[in-house]
Amino acid sequence: MKITLAKGLNAGLRKAMEDDPKVLIMGEDVGKLGGVFRITDGLQKDFGEDRVIDSPLAESGILGTAVGMAMRGYRPVCEIQFDGFVYPAYDQIVSQVAKLHFRSQGKVRMPMVIRIPFGGGIGAVEHHSESPEAQFAHTPGLKVVACSNPVDGYWMIQQAIASDDPVVFLEPKRQYHADKAELDESATPAPLFSSRVVRSGTDVTLLAYGPTVKTCLAAAEAAAREGRSLEVIDLRTLSPLDMGPVLESVRRTGRAITVHEAHVNLGMGAEVAARITEQCFYALESPVLRVGGFDTPYPPSRIEEDYLPDLDRVLDAVDRAMEF
Amino acid sequence: MTTDVFSASQAAWNGEGPELVQLLTPEGERVDHPGISLDLGSPEEEAEVIRGFYRDMVLTRRIDTEATALQRHGELGIWAQLLGQEAAQIGSGRALRPQDFVFPTYREHGVAYCRGVDPLDLLGLFRGVDQGRWDPAEHNFGLYTIVIGAQTLHGVGYAMGIQRDGAVGTGDPERDAGVIAYFGDGASSQGDVNESFIFAASYNAPVVFFCQNNQWAISEPIERQSRIPLYQRALGFGFPGVRVDGNDVLATYAVTRAALQRARDGQGPTLVEAYTYRMGAHTTTDDPTRYRLSSDLEHWKLKDPIERVRVYLKRNGLADADFFGDVEAEAGRLGEHLRTGCKELPDPSPLSIFDHVYAEQTDELAVQKEGFAAYLESFDAEGATR
Ligand SMILES: Cc1ncc(C[n+]2csc(CCOP(=O)(O)OP(=O)(O)O)c2C)c(N)n1
């Protein structure tokens, strides 16, 4: 069966709800409408209003009540409608969701998933194109993952729901209804908190997640025509980071470039670069370079493609790494 | 919830109870409401004002239909339609004095028009060339706020500033000022909105909370947000709440004017719930057939805010065919202004991304800007992109 990312997530949510009656969905417009991106399409019809909960318009309310639901033994999957609207819930996520397990010395678990459509490129107005992942990865107690393709969407959402830790689950909204991929439901998925080489190469390692995986694959394709061999790693997990495949790759290529839509300053790339430098310094032929959004607010959509790292910006960094 | 309490307010729940302030019925009949007077001067003066409201509403609707069409033609990324909410916006917008300040959501196109913002300037945000190009201080009209509810707190803070400036309760109509903060029924669930009520009450801030209850927050009906009529919430916070027929421009005007005067006089906040209906989709990307019945829409079409004023003016001989023709012609010119103007709105330069992040540009950002400029130039030098 060929599916889009939206369908993959929808099917994964459905499977999780079938497998475990404690799984609930909460969020704005997730019921009848099926979410503004239709990720929860049809779920309220099939699982009822008690399990697919259209919430009042209040993100702190969604996350705060999810905490209570989790304490009562449920596994809430909270949908934040757009990245820029997670902030009203930020206090609940950072001060409560992230810390309850620690504070209670393990007695209180927070098995919840916070789904956030993230990233830009959809021509939207402000607050609809942001990449807040570093804010959550910087918060101990939260796990943070990002899917990049339909098949991962299907598996990773189920794995995140099964996790006993709270997982911030980032979905590249630009990809929701874009490329299709073949889903084999009988396959065994890779573990949730693992990175993966998605294209092998020998000259430079590109490190991406979410929407920029596609960008990097396209860059690798273009570079190949010019005789350059780029390896692309889909990080998939941002907290914890899975550095094994990254270090293994960089030891071979000697060059690494991180690519994300989020601002470069204190973004995920900074942490990855620091770890590479610490752990395979002598293998490096050039400094680890970071390609990302500029350190400005997300711009009006007519110039968003200038803001977003694209194939050319990645190849420009590849040139700089090779020429170093 | 006890069923008693709930059924007692069923009429109010349906927007029909005696607490609904109405001065012009959907059929275009003038009616009285105890405690609320229109008070527009002589009959001639009154007729002049009502003709003005009519004109404002027709022009506002034209802004909306033009912008919707521009979106369909790919000239706007998205548009938040106000169809059906013209009376709520014109009635409240025209109740403002120049020194009052407005904190809007993203749908207050009619109020923006009342504040002298060129409707073309509203399109920039939706076209994606800027994030609001008007100067809030020039029009006393803040930028559109998309994060639901945030602006209500800003409104209260601004009102507290007015208070501290001694521009409340002096009795000088040129000096005393108030704030009006707009929000939706969905927004009434946000913490920020509830906190703004608390702050306003605590400091007796000169603010009018103007809630357009258009019955829907995207796909969620008002019942998901509130189990009592919204205006009744105010009581719990310690200030008065009024429900007005939001499709009645006269009632909305009279009620908002009175609420603003309370604010300017130093009597503190008021919640005005304008009971109305979102006749269009939430935005141009929304599909309301997925979640609501078309029969509801038909029901509300009978309560159209513009039609009832037209009927009233005609039936009472207060406006002739020339008047209606002139308004149509003016709407046509406004439409043309938006159609040509929208396509001519300049795309921002890529380098403008780096401007205005700070009042004082940082060296770091200046370096990023230079780097990006050099990067862009390298393509010009190559003559083509890869
Ligand atoms: C904090 C926040 N959460 C979610 C959204 C997405 N969103 C935009 S409009 C809207 C519904 C708003 O309903 P209401 O307040 O009734 O105003 P209306 O749009 O009907 O005028 C939602 C959920 C948002 N803009 N901000």
Report on this model:
The complex is a heterodimer of chains A (324) and B (386). Chain A is of the alpha/beta class and 324 residues long. Chain A has twelve helices and 14 strands. Chain A folds into two domains: 181 residues, 3-Layer(aba) Sandwich (Rossmann fold); 128 residues, 3-Layer(aba) Sandwich (Rossmann fold), CATH 3.40.50. In chain A, 36% of the residues lie in helices and 19% in strands. The model of chain A has no long low-confidence stretch (mean pLDDT 98). In chain B, the strands form two sheets. Chain B has a six-stranded parallel β-sheet with strand order 1-7-8-4-3-2, sandwiched between helices. Chain B has a two-stranded antiparallel ribbon with strand order 5-6. Chain B is 46% helix and 9% strand. In chain B, strand 7, helix 11 and strand 8 form a beta-alpha-beta unit. In chain B, helix 4 packs parallel to helix 11 and helix 8 packs parallel to helix 9. Chain B has 386 residues and is of the alpha/beta class. At the A-B interface, helix 11 and helix 12 of A face helix 6 and helix 15 of B. Bound molecules: thiamine diphosphate. Thiamine diphosphate (TPP) sits at the interface of chains B and A.
